Structures are given as C-alpha cells and as structure tokens.
TrEMBL record:
It is an enzyme of class 2 (transferase). Its cofactor is pyridoxal 5'-phosphate. The lineage of its organism: Bacteria, Pseudomonadati, Bacteroidota, Cytophagia, Cytophagales. Gene3D superfamilies: Glycogen Phosphorylase B (3.40.50.2000). This is Alpha-1,4 glucan phosphorylase. Signal peptide: none annotated. Allosteric enzyme that catalyzes the rate-limiting step in glycogen catabolism, the phosphorolytic cleavage of glycogen to produce glucose-1-phosphate, and plays a central role in maintaining cellular and organismal glucose homeostasis. Phosphorylase is an important allosteric enzyme in carbohydrate metabolism. Enzymes from different sources differ in their regulatory mechanisms and in their natural substrates. However, all known phosphorylases share catalytic and structural properties. One of its GO terms (biological process) is glycogen catabolic process. The keyword Transferase applies. It comes from Cecembia rubra.
C-alpha cells in the first residue's frame, strides 16, 4: 500500500503541474474540466455557459500566473528600473481572447473546447468587459499596457477599481438611456485581491503646525476621514513573451479601526454612513469626456488612487534597501493627463512630512520622477479645482502647492521680469472672483517631460495652451504620437485579415508592424485584391447580422459602410455627417432615379449623461434614420444605423467591416484620435480633416489614399478671430439650407418643431465647431469617395495600401519612444523556472 502511494506521488505532481501550466490541447481540456468540478462545483450536464466561461478563464489564468510570478521575481531580484503608469482610466476590453492570443494558444483552446462539446466564441461572448474608462484616453492606457508587456518593459499600471464602469447605453425612442454597468456581478476571474496590500489615505480635516524637539518646523495633518485602499491585481501578458506586468487597481474601503467610537457608543447610523462614504470613492467612473466639473468625489478619487500608488511604490523602493533620495532612480512615473497630477503634491508631502527630506531634496526627487502627457486642447477639459473646495479635501496639499508655487514664481520672476501676464499664466494658482488650482500647471512645474499625443497637437500645445511653458522650458517638450496595439485591433478582431496578411509576409509583423510594408508588393495583384475584399465582405456580413439582431435594421453588405464611431461630441461633428445624410436623401427625393452609390451610415458612441447637445445629436441621428430607412423612394440605397452601447467588444466587430472611416473633427480640436488608426489598419479609407493624427496618417498612406476636406487649424483660428458667421453659409448652400430647415420644421420628428430647436439655433447663430463652414467641402469630398468606391480594383488597392503603411501607428512604436526619450528604461527578458 505504502509503496504504491510513493510510487504515484511524482506522477500526480507532474500531472497537476501539467494541468495548470500545460499548453497542449489535452492539458487544456483537463484544466477546463477540472475547474468545472473544483472551482465551479459542477458537472457538464448541469454546467451553465458562465460555468464554462469561468472554468476556461481560470485555466488561462493559471498559465498567466506562472509567468506573472516569474516576472515580479525577476524585476525585484534584478533591481530593474520600473515604469509606473498612473491613469484614472483603463478601458481594457475583454481579457480572455486577448490572453489566448498573447499566450499563443488560441487554436489549441478552440480545439479543446470543441472536443468538450462547446463553442469557444460562445464563451468569449459571455465575458463582461471591464469598461473602466470613457474613451480614447482610457483605451490608450490599455494599449500601452499591452505594448509595455510585449516589449518586456518592467511596468506597473496604477488606477481605480471602479465598481461600476462606463454606463451601458440603450436607445429608447431614439434617445440615449443610461443603465449602470454592474461588470463585477458574476465575479472577475482575471483579478487577484491582495488584501494584505493596503494603505490608508487621509481626507479633509486640518493641519497643525509645531516646532519639534530638534527645532524643526513640522506639519501634522489631522484628517476628518481615513479610507483604506486595497490592491486588486490583474496580470497583463505580452504577446508571445513571458513578461507579465501588473495592473494594480485600488478599491476603497473603510479602515478596520474605523469609527469604533461611534459604533461602541451606539451611534450605529453614523458608523454605517462613514463606511458608505469610504466605499463610495471607488464606486463609479465619472462618465464625462472632454469636460471636467469640479466635483469633490472626483478629487477624492484622484487623490485616493494616487496616494495608494505612491505609498506602494515607495514601499517597493525601500524594501529593496535603497534610500528614499534615490526613488527616481528606480521609478519613472507617467501622468496620463492631469487626473493623477495631484501625485506631485502628494510626493512632496510624503518626502517632506513622512520621510523628513529637506524641501529642495524632495523637489529634486519629485521633478526627476514625473512626466506628463497632455491629451486635449479644449479649454473645458483643462482641470482646475476651486481653491476652497480643494483645501477642504486636501488641506495639507493646499499648503504644499502654495509653497511649490511661491518658489516656482520666484524663479520665474527673475526670468520674465515685469511680465505679469506671463507670471499669471504660469502660476499654479489662478486668480479671479474665486481662486482656483490649475492642474496642468502643477503637472508642468513638477515634471521633467511634457508631451502631446500627435505632431499637430504638440505643436499647438507649444503655441497656445502651454505657450509660456514652452518658452520657459523648451527642453521638457516632445511629441509622442499615439499608437494602438495590433494584437487586439487586428489579430483578435480581424482573424481572417490576419491570416491573409500572414499568408503573404509571415507572422513577424504582429510584433514589428512596419513589416506590413511588404504588403505593398501585392497591392496591384488582382488575386490578392480579391482575397482582401473577400475578407472585408465577410466582416461586413458579420456586422450586418449583429446590426439586424441589435436594431432590427436590415442592411446591404454591398453598400459602402460609412463608419463614424467614437464618443458623441460637438467637436467630433456627428451632426456634420448627418447633414450629409440628409443632403443625399433629398437628392433621392428630388430625383428618385438618381444614380447613387448605396451607403450604410453606421454610428456608435456614448454621450455624457449631462451633455444635452450630444444627446440631442443621438436623437437626431435616430430620427433621420427612421425617415430615411423607411422611405420607399430610397429603395434601401441609404440606411442609417445607430449601433447601441459602443464599447471595446462592439468596436472589435465594427472596425473590420468599415469601408470609410469618418474623422471629421474641427481642425485643431482632436488631440490625436486612435479610432482613426484602428480603422485604417483594418483597411478602411479615411475621409478627414487635417486634425490630430489624421495629419500623420495621411502622410504615411499617401494623399492619393486619403480623402481630405475642410478648414485647417490655422484657418479655423483665423476665421474665429475675424468673426465667423454661420448664417451666411446657411444662406449660401441650398442643400445645407434645406437640410437645416427640415430639421427645424420637424420633418424628421413627426412635425414636432421644438425637439431640435436648440441644436438648430446653435448651428445657425453660434456654430462653435464650424460645421456649416465645412459642409460644402465635406459633401464634395464624399462624392469623390463614393466615386472611388465604385472602382472596386482601385479601392482594393487603396485599402491594402492603408493597412500596409500603418506600421508607425503601433503602440509598440509609441512605447519605444517613451522608453528611449522619457523613461530611460530597458527591457528585461523573463525566464520561466520550469523543469518539465
Ligand atoms: C482623448 N481624450 C483625446 N479624454 O480626445 C483623443 O484625441 C486622444 O486620441 C486620446 O485622448 C488619447 O490620447 C480623452 O479621451 C477623456 O476621456 C477624459 C476623461 C476624463 C475627463 C476629461 C476627458
């Protein structure tokens, strides 16, 4: 008996190892089956789809864990410099498929599930995506995490574990209706709660000052409330490497010691209330993009995650036995916009108040640690905090910011002597009826590097919003044009195109996207063109089905798919696009037999719940759709679709099916855009203004493969200065006038002439984003695009060339630039200690 047991031990051990790490179909099957039994407590006959999803997810997570532990160990043992990305948002999208691709086991898992009698796609569709971001900025953070791991760069992403992410959008009677995003309701197999990793964060209260025994001036912050941040870690695996970095998101809780007194004295309500206040901090993501309102809870969120993150980094640093003064040797911290910029003041507080550094030493460490990325030029998106409100949440930081500002302005005054305008513009504290704190100025003063996210955007930063900063410290400025990860946005979302590309040029383009250039050789090859457009057609058919299921609208896969997907905002000009739809519709009404290229206008995007005009634009799109889609004269030649609840999963289905990518923001307003890159990578041609990264996309794909229209940023600024009169444009263009008159008169709204009044008045008398000024140029350019679409061969060629020339827009390129120019970090290859 005993002998038998001993005999079987090593065998069992290797079996269980295999079940948790093995990548073969057999091992994967066994792992899924085991998890179904041991994790979900089910057997196949009674297992639900979610049980199978969980079983597979845990099987995949086991395989990540081995790599994750090895990565952490290697980073710490080898004492490598670490990049720390601070972002209030991460718009990750579903993990499962991405992890299968990065592990290189997609095919194996497909087979394993099939052999178990389940369909992999069915499980993939079950995953609820973590929508912990609003739009481009949050998605960029997610792409950068993928590239950091793929390039084997030691990195940690820090953020907030919102219990509710970006709201879910439904369309009812044409209007957007919001529903809470309860993404955690079925549990989250991708995170590990690290209860032992927690930090206290103070809020509110007041500061006491005193002289200590050694005669040193000291500050003691007595908070009104203390909250606890608990770490939740998610592994981020790179593509076909072992490197698995950590995304550490903080959840807020009440500390253990919390309001014991009230509780003991029977004041139960008070105790419970305080607990709720603590938990509220990480409860929900603010759903605004491009506008910020100075809400206390938002400031608390920002400070909460920044403080936890800095305490965590300092802990890591000190545990390595290094001196606090050398913090900047071990860490480079990137601020994803100003949302985490309070980190600069918090770093000073920690160094001066908690670690006893002298001010100048603390400031030296701080200003060698931080770098700041700006994502917007829109004045309404530049963060400021009412000084009084700020002081009520962060009294000690207010003092520190005054001191930072005093010392900074002392220096500046010497340089710009007498120029009060400059001093005011550089000051971190704004004066007015009420004083306010300018977070962009805090970020600029406390960082060693400042960057914009596309060439035009960086130039405009230097010449407008941050002009005085550029004059003061030009050496801090550089451009880092955004990029997107080809793993999610091509390999995962467009597997057929991926295979077609790889059949010609091999697979190494997935890590070296410039290699797509080799496709140029096939751009004229009729067979390749046919195959290329064949894939596009298949992806269009898949989207047709989705649209039919979601909206009941039947669309024609042969029509030109005109795709306008992004957050709904006036500057992105979804209304310019709908005016074009109306103009085409009216042409058909005027002459029902007119030759017209059949088109499907596909819109998707969320409006901030409080943004009236954006919500009205959604209603307008749906109202126009209702008339156009059902008018027998149109004979299905035009269709307007609003695809509800735009998120990462839906974007993955939409991009591959696009023919025409609509990038029509008012020039100078879109910092970069990243959807423009994803669409072009998937072979869509762009119709766009010279804005953000469109400029660089046009540069690389060639002007003959890009439909350009509209005013330039310079012309926009000039027109505004000279006094822009939209009404003149309205009178001048008959098609425009007719479209606007129809909207106003209730043609699209059952003769209700009140619904769109605000929108119409705004366009006619203000038009802040120059929709009317660009209308004629847009319509003319769209005619060119339609004509081009009719020539299938030349369209195929242009489409191939778009993909072939998009190498520059891989987030790998962006991250390499950040690593070399800003962070000065090197990659570290991670080895697994398996002795199989
Ligand atoms: C976006 N900003 C830019 N902000 O608009 C876009 O051009 C750029 O490509 C992208 O960043 C990445 O650089 C953006 O998405 C937000 O969503 C913020 C959320 C929090 C409030 C302020 C806006």
């Amino acid at each position: 008996q005993k002998e038998k047991l001993e005999d079987s031990t090593p065998k069992q051990l290797s079996q269980s190892e295999d079940a948790r790490t093995g990548l073969s179909v057999e091992a994967l099957k066994k792992a899924i089956f085991n998890n179904l039994f041991y994790v979900q407590g089910k057997y196949p006959e009674i297992a639900t789809r979610n049980d199978y999803y969980m079983s597979l997810a845990y099987a995949v997570r086991d395989r990540l864990l081995q790599r994750w532990v090895a990565s952490v160990k290697q980073y710490l043992d080898g004492r490598h410099r670490i990049v720390s990305y601070l972002s209030a948002e991460y718009l990750l999208g579903p993990h499962l498929a991405n992890n299968l691709i990065n592990l290189g086991i997609y095919k194996e898992v497909e087979q394993a599930t099939q052999e178990l009698g389940i369909n992999l796609q069915w499980l993939l569709d079950k995953e609820v995506e973590p929508g912990l971001g609003n739009g481009g900025l949050g998605r960029l953070a997610a792409c950068y995490m993928d590239s950091l791991a793929t390039l084997e760069v030691p990195a940690i992403g820090y953020g907030i574990r919102y219990q509710f992410g970006i709201f879910e959008q439904e369309i009812r009677n044409g209007w957007q209706v919001e529903d809470t995003d309860n993404w955690l309701r079925r549990g989250n197999p991708w995170e590990i709660a690290r209860r032992e990793l927690n930090y206290e964060v103070k809020l509110g209260g007041y500061v006491q000052h005193y002289i200590d025994r050694d005669g040193k001036f000291r500050s003691n912050w007595i908070p009104e409330l203390t909250v606890k941040g608990v770490a939740y870690d998610t592994p981020i695996l790179g593509y076909k490497v072992n490197t698995t970095n950590t995304l550490r998101l903080w959840k807020s809780e009440a500390p253990k010691s919390f309001d014991f007194q009230s509780f003991n004295s029977g004041n139960y309500n008070n105790a419970v209330n305080q607990k709720i206040v603590c938990e509220n901090i990480s409860k929900v993501l603010y759903p605004n993009d491009e506008t910020v309102s100075g809400k206390i809870l938002r400031l608390q969120q920002q400070y909460f995650f920044v403080s936890c993150s800095l305490q965590d980094m300092i802990g890591i640093h000190l545990r390595q036995g290094d001196k606090i003064e050398d913090f900047n040797v071990n860490f480079a911290i990137q601020l994803n916009d100003t949302h985490p910029a309070i980190a600069i003041a918090e770093m000073m507080r920690l160094l001066v108040d908690e670690y006893d550094l002298e001010w100048v030493d603390a400031w030296r460490v701080t200003t060698r640690t931080f770098a700041y990325t700006n994502h917007t030029l829109l004045p309404e998106a530049l963060e400021t905090w009412d000084l009084e409100l700020f002081g009520s949440v962060l009294p000690r930081h207010l003092e520190l910011i005054y001191e930072i500002n005093r010392r900074f302005l002392d220096e500046v005054t010497i340089k710009v002597f007498g120029n009060n305008n400059k001093i005011n513009s550089l000051s971190i504290i704004g004066e007015g009826p009420r004083k306010f704190i300018k977070m962009a100025n805090l970020a600029c003063a406390g960082s060693f590097a400042i960057n914009g996210v596309a060439a035009l955007h960086t130039d405009l930063l230097k010449s407008t919003v941050l002009k005085d900063w550029y004059a003061l410290c030009p050496e801090k400025f550089s451009n880092k044009t955004n990029g997107v990860t080809p793993r999610r946005w091509l390999v995962l979302s467009n597997p057929k195109l991926t295979s077609l590309i790889s059949s010609k040029i091999g697979e190494s383009w997935i890590k070296h996207l410039e290699e797509l250039k080799q496709l140029e050789a096939f751009a004229d090859d009729p067979e390749f063109q046919l195959a290329w457009m064949g894939v596009k057609y298949e992806m269009k058919k898949i989207l047709c089905n989705r649209i039919l299921n979601k909206t009941g609208i039947k669309i024609n896969p042969d029509s030109l798919f005109d795709v306008h997907v992004k957050r709904i905002h006036e500057y992105k000009r979804q209304h310019l696009n709908i005016l074009h739809v109306i103009a085409l519709y009216n042409r058909i009404k005027k002459n029902p037999d007119i030759e017209i290229v059949p088109r499907t206008f596909i819109y998707a995007g969320k409006a901030a719940p409080g943004y009236k005009m954006a919500k009205l634009i959604i209603k307008l799109i749906n109202s126009v759709g209702e008339i156009v889609n059902n008018d027998p004269d149109v004979r299905d030649r035009l269709k307007v679709v609003f695809y509800p609840n735009y998120n990462v999963s839906n974007a993955q289905v939409i991009y591959p099916a696009a023919d025409l990518s609509i990038q029509i923001s008012t020039a100078g307003k879109e910092a970069s855009g990243t959807g423009n890159m994803k669409l072009s990578m998937n072979g869509a041609l762009t119709i766009g203004t010279l804005d953000g990264a469109n400029v660089e996309i046009r540069e690389v794909v060639g002007e003959e493969n890009f439909f350009l229209f509209g005013l330039t940023a310079e012309e926009v600024a000039k027109k505004k200065k000279e006094g822009y009169n939209p009404y003149g444009y309205y009178l001048e263009n008959e098609e425009l006038k007719m479209a606007i008159d129809q909207i106003a008169s209730g043609y699209f709204s059952h003769l209700d002439d009140t619904i769109f009044k605000d929108l119409v008045d705004n366009l006619l008398y203000h038009d802040p984003f120059m929709v009317l000024a660009d209308f004629t140029s847009y319509v003319t350019c769209q005619e060119k695009a339609a004509l081009a679409f009719q020539d299938k061969k030349s369209w195929a060629k242009m489409s191939i060339l778009n993909t072939a020339r998009m190498g520059k827009f891989s987030s790998d390129r962006s991250i390499r630039e950040y690593c070399d120019d800003i962070w000065k970090v090197k990659s570290v290859s991670v080895h697994l200690d398996v002795k199989d």
